[in-house]
């Protein structure tokens, strides 16, 4: 590689599936393993040699630049371009193209802002350049591909088709899915239409294939997780803390838990399975927190049990309350002696009285 490629980071989504986590915070800025998730992506890009990143922002766009600034703290040059109206993945890429410095044949990396992955970024760039492709895609293998777009390839890795979310056994012709990271030849970006929403998955890639372009797939089945749901986000954060997912940006030693500055944890409280306790958060006597994220200022009272859950900024979990696979939004108060489980989401600033939600033994 003669020079480090530039990158575009797509961070404009509303994160609807993550609500209430994303009511006040855009999805890429929700903390994972103690820092905004986007920090992990930027740090991995920098470690792979990327120096210039253009962020395609839209929803709550105003929060990104005050936090990351010009990127110098991460060794990067960051720029920000905000969509006035949502343009989809392809439209967002085209909308920021004027900020790129690459020549027509240079590679440009594209990342989605909600994928946690151990992708070998230099290998994807090398695959792109060695194959002479117009676009190269990171492909991952999954056990159940029905929720994803399938990408069958020939023996050389050349893409044969794009199949959106197949349901029948006959439609599932491969376990390879589009994993959300790409390398574009710079000139290809300029062929994407301007001024309207465009999906790279549904329009750009199939159109290029139909027109005879060379699309190359590289299978890399290291760690990969779409952080689109609260359960997945909590799992991804825990995997970062445990060291299962790679990142140079985890602010502390990997292990069973990560306790940030200013947090207080009672001596007999138990933290395990990649739990994060945010700055200024509190975990009371006898409480047990497993595989969960407590954001800054969260409060878990004595005897509470929090498992595989996310407790928002300044939120409170009352004494002896059990939270399993649930979300307590920013500023919410789940009173004492409640049971929150099965994906329940307590909205931001909501107040749940003591003992208001209980489950019978057979539920």
From TrEMBL:
Residues 255-332 form the Mannose-1-phosphate guanyltransferase C-terminal domain. InterPro entries: GMPPB_C, Mannose-1P_guanyltransferase, NTP_transferase_dom, Nucleotide-diphossugar_trans, Trimer_LpxA-like_sf. CDD domains: NTP_transferase (cd04181). GO terms for molecular function: transferase activity. Gene3D superfamilies: Hexapeptide repeat proteins, Spore Coat Polysaccharide Biosynthesis Protein SpsA, Chain A. Residues 7-239 form the Nucleotidyl transferase domain. Keywords: Transferase. Belongs to the transferase hexapeptide repeat family. This is NTP transferase domain-containing protein. The lineage of its organism: Bacteria, Bacillati, Actinomycetota, Actinomycetes, Kitasatosporales.
